[in-house]
Amino acid sequence: MSIKVRLHPILQNLAGGQELVEVIGHTTGECLEDLEIRFPVIKQLIRDKRGQLRRYCEILVNSKSTYPKELTTPVKDGDQIDIMIFVAGG
Amino acid sequence: MLTKNDLARYERQILYPDLGEKGQKRLKQSQVVVAGLGGLGCSASLYLTCAGVGHVTLIDCDRVELSNLNRQVLHYEEDIGEKKPFSAAQKLAKLNSSIEVIPVFKKITAQNASKIIKGANLVIDGMDNFKTRFIVNKACVAEGIPFIHGGVHGLFGEVTTILPGRTPCLACIFPEVPQRKVSLPVFGVTPALIAILQVTEAIKLLAGFGSLLTEKMLYFNGDTMDFTFRNLVKNQNCRVCGTKKV
Q1: Is B5 helix (H, G, I), strand (E, B) or coil?
Q2: Does A90 reside within a domain?
Q3: Which of A15, A58, B81, B237 has the most CB atoms lying inside 10 A of its own CB?
Q4: Which domain holds residue A8?
Q5: How many CB atoms lie within 10 A of CB A30?
Q6: Is B212:B232 a contact under the CB 8 Å cutoff?
């Protein structure tokens, strides 16, 4: 099973410059956990203290919104998960 | 109607075949709202003014501080303490006295946003927080006014153009408004570059040529000097612009 997470450019520096990371999981949440085990610093940026996804992050599967099931959307072989981060500075 | 002065001032861009005198006239007749006079808004309004956009409204509720001067290029040391829209308008009036610059010192709220942008041909996002961006996004969708979003963080920036009803709005991508408001790192060059991309979009949209950054987000990573894109898809359940609002 091949599922890829495409990292937002802000996160790529935290993953050794990688844009695409292959992960294992049956849901978006499981895939993110797999990613976070390998890159714990990403977890600090995208989750709050309770483990909830921060509101400035959104999860897309094949470019489509998963809201409000960002962490429970089923994924299958060949899917691509995007982590979007809203950039607020002006 | 373009005057003799207009023809001379804008000669080099009128030479661009897709713009020509017809496009320049459209710019002259256009009204653009620049929401926020920080790093993005200063650079954006500077280039809107240079390009000959006829009516530019500048709105912000802050006063100039010393810590603004690394990036907010229309505010000078002598302006510290001054209302940002007036500080910016003074410089723009000296740059191009043939256009109308309207400074508005006001906080954008859910109650006044539609009134502020009404009649504009487009709105440029120069804001520095999530909440106001979502208020303006919603007002632009309600009024059917294109919204050119820009955002920066450090050496990173993003741009997308939203055509209400036709292309994804900010709430399609981020359904819930993030609450965080903290001081973010930012270099002066990042908002300058992103603002210039926003104005490039504005010129094309107003004059009616070229293709736009719709249904995709352009990312600039100044650390690696990469430009990348993400496709954006309209969310039919979007609380702001969806046809099946939840």
Answers
A1: helix
A2: no
A3: A58
A4: 3-85
A5: 17
A6: no
Amino acid B77 reads: E
Instruction: Count Cβ atoms below 10 Å from residue B227 Cβ, excluding itself.
Output: 11
Q: How far apart are CA B181 and CA B59, in angstroms?
A: 20
* pLDDT single digits (tens) B3-47: 999 999 999 999 999 999 999 999 999 999 999 999 999 999 999
Residue in B39, B178, B185 nearest the CB of A90: B39
Contact B172 A82 (CB under 8 A): no
Contacts of A52 in chain B (CB under 8 A): none
Q: Considering only alpha carbons, which residue of chain B is nearest residue A17?
A: B224
| B50-109 residues touching A, CB cutoff 8 A | none
Residue A10 lies in a domain: yes
Contacts of B41 in chain A (CB under 8 A): 90
Alpha helices in B100-227, H assignment, sequence order: 113-117, 130-143, 170-173, 189-207
Q: What is the per-residue pLDDT across B62-106, written as a single tens digit (0 to 9) for each? A: 999 999 999 999 999 999 999 999 999 999 999 999 999 999 999
For residue B74, the enclosing domain spans 4-231
CA-based nearest residue in chain A for residue B219: A9
Q: Are B126 and B150 in contact (CB under 8 A)?
A: yes
